Amino acid sequence: MANATMSKINKDKGKAGREYNYKCTIAINFPSLLQAQSACEVLSVDEEIGNRVIKSLHVKEIEGENNEQRQQQGTLIVDVASSEAKMLRVSVSSFYDMLAVFLKCQQEFQQ
């Protein structure tokens, strides 16, 4: 399950003093910590093109319950910030496309 929040932020400076006024945070829950870490490693390989968008990915460990046993689950947190609303939309849309490819590959190799 993925949750996304978008907001306009004030004067968050990044690369070369550029202001990143728009921000989106995406949280994707995975059934295992290993799957979340794999997604983070695969999806963080490519940097954003140009300096109008910055993106960071990290994994947050969560405790879940599965069949009365404690199991470590993971949440992939993706923070995207941009100086333009359009560029934020393009970057987030591209991220979801790459996530879909990752999930399809993961599903195929597990079978």
TrEMBL record:
A Pfam family of this chain: Pcc1
InterPro entries found in the cross-reference section: CTAG/Pcc1 (IPR015419)
Record organism: Chaetoceros debilis
PANTHER family: EKC/KEOPS COMPLEX SUBUNIT PCC1 FAMILY MEMBER, EKC_KEOPS COMPLEX SUBUNIT LAGE3
Record's GO cellular component terms: EKC/KEOPS complex
Protein family (similarity comment): Belongs to the CTAG/PCC1 family.
Gene3D superfamilies, per database record: Alpha-D-phosphohexomutase, C-terminal domain
Example GO BP: tRNA threonylcarbamoyladenosine metabolic process
Protein name: Transcription factor Pcc1
Source domain of life: Eukaryota
